[in-house]
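Protocol step 4 of 6: structure prediction from sequence.
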Amino acid sequence: MIFEKLVNHFLSVLSERSQINDVLNAETIAMIPGSFKPPHKGHYAMIEHFSNISDRTIVIISDPQSEKSVRRTPGGKKVTSQEARQILEIYTRGLSNVELVTSTAPVKWVYDFVAEDTTPGQRVLLGVSGKGDDANRYLGAQKYAPEGVTVEASVFSDSNLDISASTIRQVLDTPTLGKINQFLPTHLSKQDKEQVIQILSQLEESSDWVLSAD
């Protein structure tokens, strides 16, 4: 009887410690996968929103390997993950909990992170826009999470998200501040905007695409 009580007490202590550890590990991680070619003020509004409600915000920038998936201007200039990341670095300088990564398969990256890099007590918010069926991409995400990890799609809606990156690409063959200022986050300084223009002015032209368009 005494031995049984000791065992039950020991198990009770372990359970309490486990619960305490879960509380100590409690952390909200927001993950935002996307193309961002190029990033605009709608993208920033979404990142800022999740930065404000999470401990970590991870932005996963797509890096397509297929030429058909590469985003281009009307003149054939490429907008790559490198330019997207450089611009997002400028946008998010004031958001200390934002991390930027690139991936050839952003959705898979999210699933792998949930399965391999989360611990009990954490909450994962999968940030999606209210457009289309983005939230449906993550309907099965919870089943990949370890026990004690909560995963949910979190929809962010904002009028600035109605801006289409393809609309911005229409003016990127000869980008000027006058042409793109309306698409930039309002918190940027003049120097920040000049840096963005410089990045967009150095887009690589795809000769293969130009030849095939003739």
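Step 5 (inspection) to follow. The beta strands are 27-34, 56-62, 71-72, 78-79, 98-103, 122-129, 150-156.
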